[in-house]
Amino acid sequence: MTKQGMVVPVPEAAVAVPPNSAPLFQYPPPRAAPGVAVRKKCLQMGAGAGRIGGWVESMRASSPTHAKAAAALAAGVEEERYAAWMVKHPSALAMFDQLVAASKGKQIVVFLDYDGTLSPIVDDPDAAYMSDTMRRAVRSVAKHFPTAIVSGRCRDKVFEFVKLAELYYAGSHGMDIKGPAKGSRHTKVPIHSNLCPCILSGHPKILISLCLSYVCGSQAKGGGVLFQPASQFLPMIEQVHDSLVEKTKCIPGAKVENNKFCVSVHFRCVDEKSWITLADMVKSVLKDYPKLKLTQGRMVFEVRPTIKWDKGKALEFLLESLGYADCTDVLPVYIGDDRTDEDAFKVLRKRGQGVGILVSKHPKDTCASYSLQEPAEVMEFLLRLVEWERLSKARPKW
């Protein structure tokens, strides 16, 4: 029995996959292929170079170069796969009326990834600026709905890009959360939690309740929520960041980014021949830090604490803080483009309630029900959402 408000995805049985077609570009871990074992999401620090190499191979599959994508399109193979994939994950713009119909009598809460969703993917992560028109669209959304940016980036850095005080910001994959400035329409009770790993290993429901009731230290400036479950890892993260900067200097194009509660090693500008070498370097630094794990994003290695916290947990935490934990009168809408956003899509599916939208021009394995191709379509979707809300309020109530 599903909860009310669920947006039912198109049945998979309706998809006619072309015979002998190549597999979808996958989010790791990949499905088993002949002679290849299915790999875990995180690299185990004791794994050998063979596993590292296989993991990097899966990254090639999940992040094809423009040249490879163009070649596939020219051959017609990619186009065929994408058409089949779109049957299962139709455009959120094409299905807009169905989506908003599911929100009748419910509060929409909007969750947005940043890179690749609100801004284009660029070679230099420090230059991932969002357009002024996108900023206006997000501001308009926040006037009508509680809105959060959920990113792997450092929270302060995301705020510098977005510059909107009326939003919730969940940086470092949700390990650093702050709410809107005092006086904003959707501001709730201020929270400052700083919890130990033993608490974080508990049941998600118990964990979130503890997060909301355990107040430690001063309240967040301006009255917003402040939640940092991995503060004790900060010295360790700093050490690893410094070591990786030094270690990767010899790899042209590699960029190490300190995202406060995690470290990102970008290799978008690294020659493919050096990917395995770079992965080995990261592994060699982390061998002395068993409390940190290595995960994969879009053309990036992510070093994170081993606590059970991710974008999905951040989504649950924010819904709880807004008072919508077990409500049937809420419709969360999550839009993201990276494999780290899959944790949030899975939460929505588990709740049986909400809308998961993957931003991608290529077919990928995903738990999202709908899709958009690029940030321009995300902006169009957000503007349509605002206009729909405006018109619905203007309609006479009989």
From TrEMBL:
Encoding gene (name): LOC100275460
Class of this enzyme: hydrolase
One Pfam family, short name: Trehalose_PPase
GO molecular function, one term: trehalose-phosphatase activity
UniProt keyword list: Hydrolase
EC number: 3.1.3.12
Function: Removes the phosphate from trehalose 6-phosphate to produce free trehalose.
Pathway: Glycan biosynthesis; trehalose biosynthesis
Catalytic reaction equation(s): alpha,alpha-trehalose 6-phosphate + H2O = alpha,alpha-trehalose + phosphate
One GO biological process term: trehalose biosynthetic process
Necessary cofactors: a divalent metal cation
Protein name per its UniProtKB record: Trehalose 6-phosphate phosphatase
Protein family (similarity comment): Belongs to the trehalose phosphatase family.
